[in-house]
Design goal:
Helix content: under 10%
Strand order of the largest sheet: 1-8-3-6
Number of strands: 8
CATH architecture: Sandwich
Largest sheet: 4 strands, antiparallel
Strand content: 35-45%
Number of domains: 1
CATH topology: Jelly Rolls
Radius of gyration: 13 Å
CATH class: Mainly Beta
Length: 105
């Protein structure tokens, strides 16, 4: 796999205990990179159409992929269209995540 381009657009999202508005990812690609710059873990929902991140509970859900504080993760996504993202923290938590879309790791 190729590394992310140095020219990849970056989308910052402020995350609190209320789900962020559904926002289009900054471009198309087969990988999304999420850097959690904050002190709290966040949970993200990425997909086509409007997204609303939720906190995990006893029922597994696809709208709560965790991104630990201080981490940098890459997830695969289909590259056929622009997808949306929403994020949320647990009560009392906050963070800023930076999101990039590209081809690779």
């Amino acid at each position: 796999m190729n590394p992310f381009s140095a020219q990849a657009k970056t989308l910052p999202i402020t995350v609190t205990a209320t789900a962020s508005i559904s926002t289009a990812l900054p471009s198309k690609g087969n990988s999304v990179r999420i850097i959690n710059e904050g002190p709290s873990a966040v949970f993200v929902s990425i997909g086509s159409g409007t997204q609303a991140a939720t906190l995990p509970d006893t029922t597994p859900t696809s709208t709560s992929t965790p991104v630990l504080n201080g981490s940098d993760i890459v997830l695969s996504i289909p590259s056929d269209q622009v997808y949306n993202i929403s994020a949320i923290c647990r009560s009392g938590g906050s963070a800023t995540i930076s999101v990039q879309v590209g081809e690779g790791l």
